[in-house]
Write a structure and sequence with these properties.
Elements: H1 2-47, H2 50-54, E1 57-64, E2 70-72, H3 74-85, E3 93-105, E4 108-118, E5 131-142, E6 145-155
Length: about 160
């Protein structure tokens, strides 16, 4: 009888290892997929391809930019970025320097990334200095595709109220 109990316990332990081991492997693959969305965000930005950029977002996505403009829906996000990529960001380059991913659920992740922007210009066309910031994306998996459902961008402003980055 004790032999059967040990077999049962061993079976449960084996199932737990398989289930939790697979979950870990699955999240590792998901982490890479989430990071790929962020890197593709930068790639689309650098190609100034706002059509492809918009496809990273769900239809009902929202985006708050560094000055607090709040765009609702994929189309509004796309149009706002088309406008800036024909003017101030026309020759800009966005570099992602770090990405941290945290899963809220297996199909919901927060990706925070540090970025550096160069090549942008002011309203009169004058070159502006490099900017640094943090981009937060809430990324969801729907139909086996990871997409941005919410995004908030923040400039890092060096000075008294922030520590040097």
């Amino acid at each position: 009888m004790n032999h059967n109990i040990f077999k049962t316990i061993a079976l449960y332990m084996l199932v737990a290892v398989i289930v939790f081991g697979c979950a870990t492997i699955s999240l590792a693959g998901s982490k890479e997929s989430v990071e790929k969305v962020v890197r593709t965000f930068a790639d689309c930005w650098n190609r100034h391809d706002m059509e492809a950029f918009a496809q990273l977002f769900t239809q009902d996505a929202e985006f708050v930019n560094v000055v607090g403009l709040w765009w609702k829906g994929r189309e509004e996000i796309k149009q706002a970025h088309i406008a800036t990529h024909t003017t101030m960001f026309k020759n800009s380059h966005l570099a992602i320097t770090n990405i941290d991913v945290r899963f809220l659920k297996p199909d919901v992740a927060i990706a925070r990334s540090r970025w550096e922007l160069t090549g942008h210009v002011g309203p009169s066309g004058e070159p502006l200095p490099q900017r640094k910031g943090i981009l937060m994306n809430l990324i969801v998996r729907t139909n086996d595709k990871w997409m941005i459902i919410d995004s908030q961008n923040t400039d890092i402003i060096e000075g008294v109220l922030s520590r040097p980055q």
